[in-house]
Amino acid sequence: MESQVKDGFDSFFQHATGHTPYPFQRNLATSEIFPEVIKIPTGMGKTDAIILGWLWRRRFDPRDEVRLRTPRRLVYCLPMRVLVEQTRDKTKQWLDRLGILAASPGDDNAVTGFAESSMREGKRIAVTVLMGGEEREWWDIYPERDAIIIGTQDMLISRALNRGYGMNKYRWPTHFGLLNNDCLWVMDEVQLMGRGLATTTQLQAFRHRLGTMEPSPARSVWMSATLEERWLGTVDFDPGTNITRTLTLSQGDRNEPAIQSRIQARKILERVETGAGDLKGLAGEILDKHPGGARTLVIMNTVRSAADLHKEISKRKPDAKLVLIHSRFRPPDRQEVVSDLLEEPGPEGTIIVSTQVIEAGVDVSAKALFTELAPWPALVQRLGRCNRAGEYDEAQVYWIDVPTDKKGSALPYTPEELDRAREVLLSLEGQSVGPDWLPDVREEVVHEQVIREKDIIELFDTTPDLAGNDLDVSRFIRDADDTDVQVFWRDFPEEGPGGEEPEQLPHRDEICTVPIGEIRDLVGKKREEAWVWDTLDGQWSRVRADSIYPGITLMLRANSGHYTRAKGWDISSKETVPVIQRKEESTDIDYTSNESAVGGWMSIAEHTNQVCGEMAAILDSLGLDGQWRTSLLEGARWHDAGKAHRSFQALLKKDALEEFDDPPAAKAPRDAWKGRLPARPDADDERRRYFRHELASGIAALQNGRDDLVAYLAAAHHGKVRVSIRSMPGEQRPRDQDTRFARGVWDGDVIPETDLGGGVILPQTTIDLSFMDLGHGVNGASWLARALELRDQPDIGPFRLAFMEALMKAADERASGGGGA
Fold it and tell me: Which residues does the UniProt record annotate as the domain HD Cas3-type (predicted)?
């Protein structure tokens, strides 16, 4: 069997990449124990090893137990945005060559080619990128399918903490559930992760302690050329106990000619006399030392210094092609820059001015490398971008000293990190700094702001506080001086972006990430306008500087400037920003929206039967049975019972509803729905602001003898009614001031007898909102107490409960035709 597995993997790898695997790549894919730590020199193919290793073990390995133990979702976490598209494109190419690439997550086309002849079972696999902005890939409504999800630590870790950046907040629990269950998390280039590194180890410890869905528990892998196991040690994660295997180069790897040429590549180190503060002098030195017909790569420590140096070099009008690359570009513009960067140099060569973004994952090689002094792990990565494959007999590395004796001069690093790195570089002066000649330098990592179990428990509840604010998780994702917001630009009237048809939410191609401090200064000190989408009221609201938090998405006026396609984010630019705008399908973007109810006429029973059918299919594919299956199917049966409430039916035009022959309706064509509820509705208008039918569904389920889990799942399937029940700001009050009310549902409301399909009849039910009271009442525990007990129940816990919410949402959306919420 062992030779069959290895020979099979070699053939698989050859089909995907066009070349045979290195021994470490084969070892990772075919060994009994999957490593938690991968410490391989830069440029050796770690990305190929982990992605294709996961794919082999999940789909192609002939050993049944290996395929079963391999999680169905690969979550590839990158520290920098520049790398995301490159990793995506490479992954798609491999899957396409194997005949297994899905055009979209729901692609049902049969596999072809190598996959058809070699794979035992399974559908095609989609590759999804999480970058913020509106997207229509809908990977999250196919929880039973294998998937590859690629994103930055901002996008992925925030979702794993139930506070996803750049996404609809009502989908937070769905991503929280899916990204903490049945996943293999891969953290690439961990030396760049900052505080996010400790969060990934803590999350892995929490998943183990609090429990995830079987049979494939969530696992994590950390990768870097300089990674030390002790970096992973946190209060709840002990590397000595939790790291069972570290993958490094074997002697067999070192004997490979291609690896030998990489690890023994000659690159001679030399200190340049010009300091980091003299950009004019540095520009001249770079041009003097630039080798024609090849690349010169210049890596600066900040976006500002890189942009300023690029400007100084531009002034000299070099014959060489000049490229500026950093993290603050919109995706289409960034792709153009990366394309220029990767293009084979012409006779005059290419000069690339970059920030740390090029340290990880970008497969580019230069004959001359200039780098500012940086911490040793970062320098090792930068050195790996010079004479990467040993293609030159000799290359040059020039290092630029950075002063550490003035306050702030070492930023974004610490003076101590730079002082230690300087000592190492001085000891290597005039020598080759290829991988085989580098000293083993031990670096200390001090974890600050470590997330604790009580934090993840509290984050399960997505209800804003009484002031309308959400818990801030930025301190667990990035260092305090490295936090970003997302901005995009639009043309809109002088009076603002409101009106009957407000500006659409941004597509991800419009998004640019920018430093939070610079945006706060623009809005606060310079009084520029910025707008944020109000998910409660479904409109754009002008934002104040003190309410701008990490991860927020802001709309700016295009004529305010601050961005050019060639230079990216440039706070000093006054040029009007070209608007990128795409017509997107409607989505559920505010609290009251019922976009998923738009479709053909359908009764509650008919729609519910479809949802239950989708749920059964999902559960069959996942192999979930027993109590989970019963609760999920029953939750699906009750999820839309509240649509029989008169306030939901009142959303439909009276004459249109009268023509429907099987009321109450669960779905109706777009032209059958009334418009927005006016600020002062007529006295006979039975619509209610913020009405949520799923709250009525959950309460009705409890009142009719269903257990707490069924009621919770019925109520939580849109992500808008979950742990706590309370009224909303500006919500319509009943005339009787003593009547309880919340989310448009009033104590004493009557839901008529309704067919829920499957032989289940909801009897006429008078809503009892005493469940929203705290403590124990006549009906027993409050809704809050019941939800918290489910969250804290050892055999359920926060991760499993959120996963079940995700299954509910998936079944409902698939029955509704996909999309919406």
Answer: 597-815
750-751 and 765-766: which strand pairing? antiparallel
| pLDDT, tens only, 43-70 | 899 999 999 999 999 999 999 999 999 9
Instruction: Decide if 259 is inside a domain.
Output: no
Other Cβ atoms less than 10 A from the Cβ of 418: the count is: 22
* For helices 626-638 and 604-622, angle between their N-to-C axes, nearest 10 degrees: 160
Report how far residue 88's alpha carbon sits from residue 151's, in angstroms, rounded to the nearest whole number. 9
Q: Cα separation of 594 and 667, whole Å? A: 10
Nearest to 730 by CA among 534, 587, 596: 534
Residue 468, sorted as left (phi over 0), alpha (psi -120 to 50) or beta, turns out to be left
If you ran DSSP here, which 8-state letter would residue 495 be given?
T
Q: Which token pair is 404?
A: 């550490």
Using CA of residue 267, residue 268, residue 271, residue 275, what is the dihedral sign? negative
Whole-angstrom Cα distance, residue 742 to residue 112?
53
Contacts of 812 (CB under 8 A, 6+ apart): 596, 611, 614, 636, 639, 717, 718
- Quick check: 482 and 192 in contact, CB under 8 A? no
In angstroms, rounded to a whole number, what is the distance separating the alpha carbons of residues 289 and 440?
30
pLDDT in tens, 353-365: 999 888 766 778 9
What are the angstrom distances between the C-alpha of 236 and each of 203, 385, 795? 9, 36, 20
- What amino acid is encoded at 361 in this protein? G
DSSP string, 97-119: HHT-B-SSTT--PPP-HHHHHH-
CATH number (domain holding residue 374): 3.40.50.300
Cα separation, 302 vs 309, whole angstroms: 11
pLDDT 10s digits, 548-592: 988 889 999 999 999 999 899 999 999 999 998 766 544 555 556
For residues 511 and 129, the answer to whether their CB atoms sit within 8 Å is: no
Confidence of residue 133 (pLDDT cuts 50, 70, 90): low
pLDDT for 217 equals 84
* Contact by Cβ (8 Å): 151, 129: yes
In the numeric block, which tokens belong to residue 443? 């670096």
- Which is nearest to 518 in space by CA: 563, 476, 565, 478? 563
Last residue of a domain, one of 584, 610, 642: 584
Letter string b/e over residues 457-473, b meaning 16 or more CB atoms within 10 A of that residue's CB: bebbbbeeeeeeebeeb
Q: What is the DSSP letter of 744?
A: T
Residues with Cβ < 8 Å from 92, sequence gap 6 or more? Answer: 101, 127
- Distance between CA atoms of residues 732 and 308, nearest Å: 56
On whether residue 444 sits in a domain, the answer given is: no
CB 275 within 8 A of CB 354: no
Measured CA to CA, the distance from residue 608 to residue 811 in angstroms comes to: 10
pLDDT at residue 185 above 60? yes
The answer to whether the predicted template modeling score (pTM) of the entire model surpasses 0.85 is yes
The separation between CA 710 and the C-alpha centre of its own chain, rounded to angstroms, equals 29
Residues present in the chain in total: 821
Q: Is 83 exposed, middle or buried (0-12, 13-18, 19+ CB in 10 A)?
A: buried
As a whole number of angstroms, the distance between CA 565 and CA 337 comes to 9
Structural domain containing residue 578: 483-584
Backbone angles phi, psi at 787, to 5 degrees: -65, -40
User: Which residues in 536-592 belong to E strands, given as ranges?
Assistant: 539-542, 553-557, 563-564, 568-569
The Cα–Cα gap between 20 and 45 comes to: 12
Please indicate, yes or no, whether residues 530 and 660 belong to a single structural domain of this protein.
no
Q: Among residues of the chain, what percentage have pLDDT more than 70? A: 96
Round the average pLDDT of the chain to a whole number and report it: 91
Q: Are residues 546 and 489 in the same domain?
A: yes
SS3 271: strand
Question: Do 509 and 657 lie in a common domain?
Answer: no
State how far Cα 513 lies from the chain centre. Answer: 14
Residue-wise pLDDT for 706-715, tens only, equals: 999 999 999 9
Answer whether 554's CB lies under 8 Å from 487's CB: yes
